[in-house]
Specification:
alpha/beta, 8-stranded mixed β-sheet, 6-stranded parallel β-sheet
Amino acid sequence: MAYNPKPIDTSEILLSAALSKLTEQLAENVHDTWSQRRMAEGWRYGPSRNDTSKEHPNLVPYDQLAEHEREYDRKTALETIRVLLSLGYQIEAPSSKPDAATNASIKASEELERLGNVLSKGARLQELIATWSGRDLEAWARSEALFRLLGESLVKVGEPLLAYDVANQGLQHFPSSVRLRQLLGLALARSGAGGESRAILTQLYTEGNEDEETLGLLARSYKGMAEAAIGSQKKLYFQRAKGFYEKAYEKTNGYWSGVNAATLALLLGEREYASKLAREVKTTCSEDLKRMKKTGGDPYWLLATLGEAALILEDCAEAEEWYSQAAEIGRKRYGDLNSSRRNARLLMAHLNLHSSRIESCFQVPSVVVFSGHMLDESERRVPRFPADLELSIYEEIGERLDELDAGFGYSSAACGSDILFLEAMLEREGEIHVVLPYEKDRFIEANVDREPTWKTRFERILERAAEVVVASGHRADGDGILFEYANRILYGLARCRADQLDTRLEALAVWDGEPEAGPGGTATAVEVWRAAGAKIEIIDSITVLRKSHPEATEHADPVRQIVSGVAHAPADQGFVPEIRALLFADVVNFGKLSETETTLFVHHFLGLVAKLVQELSPAPLIKNTWGDGLYFVFPDVRSAGRFALELRDRVKTTEWSKKGLRGFELRIGLHAGPVYACIDPVTERRNYIGAHVGRAARIEPITPPGNVYASQSFAALAAAEKGLEFKCDYVGQTSLAKQYGTFPTYVLLRREPYQDG
């Protein structure tokens, strides 16, 4: 009869920082107690375990144990404390005058209590972000549990990028934490960075971590590779994934590794074996669910697993029932819902089944990107959006959001349509993301503060936003290009979120159908988004206006000069604003070259760069070198990204020793933003200048040698492009060079079919 351990569920028990501080002391005591007992029985140290001669490799002092053995002792010690607390016992520290360390631990306990209160109410993303941004740095440095619990919650609600930042920051304080490393791997996997995730999990596995979480997550990474592969590679990766799930199930009898092993067995044609595993898992989950109803806890994964087991057994009706219950429990846990839907779809496709009910269980609301007209200024001759039209526009927006099943909104926040859209999203308990074209105070002055209440509404929206991105640091004369840039970023960020959640991206606009007198308005947004492939739902502001004002003219405002929606009028002094992709590159250790090597460098290295410029099209708009430095400006992110990766690879694969040079590695940084084209009075050549050139220059110095790093703006504009040869994987919040600040940073990778390895 199979033994199925049923320990008390302590997953909801939070240890205070004071107790967590005792972790090593308690773990060492566990080890010493075990060692003392073994030695009393006649055991002694030996390089490997030998039951006949009674030798054991772990009969050494605690600090000489392998890390995975110490982690085992830590878990044993802390789990005992959690059980006592779950049974209602209290553990109090001895009274004494607290020192600085104790005060920090007390703060950490208070932070844990606050986080526990947030999580107990079913925290939304906005609340989790507020917890992270408002954290006490000293207190968090004392508690691994704070990073772990917040990271786990962010993964649940489908925000893997921030979960990555949380886990990564936690590992700076607790580098040996297996759970934080697992979370880092899971966050990367959920954000699409499968290779990086697999590297972290493989390292954990080779260190001896064979717990269900490590094995299961490693299996998940191979399953992701299989889903993206074709032909024999697909089968190979499914087999690897199944092997890790099976190993986890054999070691732990865990239901989630068991059901995944069953799913993959079915996909590989092992129907009888899959059915056997599914029945075992079904029995385990049913027993656990009965016990959980008495003791309390989160039943989501039990219910979802029962649904998956039923689907494996081809009982679609039962699967629908279990999945329905899971979906009700997991409402707004979009990361978990998407993970469950992924397996359900794999199974239904393999079994040639279709269930609209199962699909509806895991329906993730759509992501909506929005643009719309501002409130009319008082001097506008012909009305387009007068103040008394506010309620009508709001109702129209609300109706469209219902039709689109909107759950996530991306918009700027000008008075009028933008704020109405964001308020409508909040009313339906949606998640909102705001992109401002330039700094907040100037934006309020120019685009919000037209009537007294709008500024208050604007501030309230920013407080409740999950994210506020400032596209450019400062407002410029002729700021239409900054609005166009913000609209492009809006669409790219929305595209990323929709891909992340595997849901629909919808575009909505309040627009009168007329082109603009310059870049940056709603007409530009519509044109740019249509070019990116979006089908845009239009609320015709003129139609809405005529319902309330039948006397409104059909003619456009005669004051406006109608030109192409993306035409850029030259600014003063001949400076022309353009949205361009910028590349800075630097050769590592160039300063160590001898005089002879420097001349060879010019001939061979710069010659390689020149040849690449000639081969690739479109060519850079400008190209500049100084010593080992490169500064290129490209028409778009596609050409910049392709050039950067090709340059990196050619430098890596060239046999420099045959050319009389030591090996080279490049650091390449990419950014995209509004810059000003001009003729440089000194060189009398075309040049591009502006604040975004400075931002681009700060990325290259922090890029690891041999890599191509990019800004969030570059990644967003790339996400809006179709058929790129590369992708942008998140690497975290990174401090840029010369104290420029901390920004989200991405690494460029080629999109290639998975290869065996």
